[in-house]
Amino acid sequence: MANESGYLNDYLEHLTHIKKFSPHTIKAYRQDIQQFQDYFEENGLAVDKHTIRDYISVIFLRTRNKATISRKIYALKSFYSYLMKHGKLAKNPFDAVSSPKNEKKLPEILTENEMLAFLDKLPEESFLQVRNKAVFEFLYATGLRISELVNLRIPDINFTEDMARVLGKGKKERIVPFNEHAKTILLNYLERARLQFKKPIDYIFLNAWGRKITERAIEQILHKSFMEMMESNKSVYPHLFRHSFATHLLQRGANLRVIQELLGHESLSTTEKYTNLNYSDLLNVYKKFHPRSG
């Protein structure tokens, strides 16, 4: 990457004097290529088709603009073609990378403003209202799958460290932090639940009869609550909170490797070769970038 960085000025001179590109286009190309080089250097990554696709995913979620992504890919592909033609590279790593197709849908999300406005408007008077607020705040605080949330038990939560132990897909365990805001609401709910049912609690999120709440029930409550609180017919579902959680962290500058760890994804295997992440790092990054941790 260091050698490639040194050829950027040569390439831009080529665009200026040989290709006769406009100053505006050259400025955009410089920013696109520099952004790419900075990302790979800061994260210690080798440039290959897998890490390139991971990088594009980050930019995709931050900008949510397919035209911008297409321009960046074209600029980088052209730069690496230039390096090949001048004998600096054996092959172009962007040959296996294509621009986003028009019909490909981005994951739906709620904006930060929409998410925080909805959560802040949720009432906290009855036991069920307190439970609902705890459910939605915890979903957004952790990015959990709805199946992971409903199966949380009391021993899975460490209130001292603000960490939850989660059993994800394939029975793989991971540790996920949560913020003080969600913690306060969750503790309030658990106290109300103990008073409501007058018995020890096993599963954290319960229905009106003291049994584990179902995924379907949460889906229905969320749809109804969003429609009432926001006066909106927007289709809102629990997994939207997971998409929003990841996107908001990325938009605020969190590393994709951290997002992978928080979500429990097995992808980005190439990135794992170059980055070591411990739970202290994970918690520090989470506290820095989650909208509720400010």
The CATH topology of the largest domain: hpI Integrase, Chain A
User: Strand tally, please?
Assistant: 3
The level-1 CATH class of the largest domain: Mainly Alpha
Mean pLDDT: 85
Catalogue the unreliable spans. Answer: 267-277
CATH architecture of the largest domain: Orthogonal Bundle
Largest sheet: 3 strands, antiparallel
CA-based gyration radius: 23 Å
DSSP helical segment count: 14
- Largest beta sheet: strand ordering: 1-2-3
Give helix and strand order, one letter per element, not per position: HHHHHHHHEEEHHHHHH
Number of domains: 2
Assign the CATH superfamily of the largest domain: Intergrase catalytic core
- The structural class is mainly alpha
Coarse shape: elongated
End-to-end Cα distance: 35 Å
Strand content: under 5%
Helicity range: 55-70%
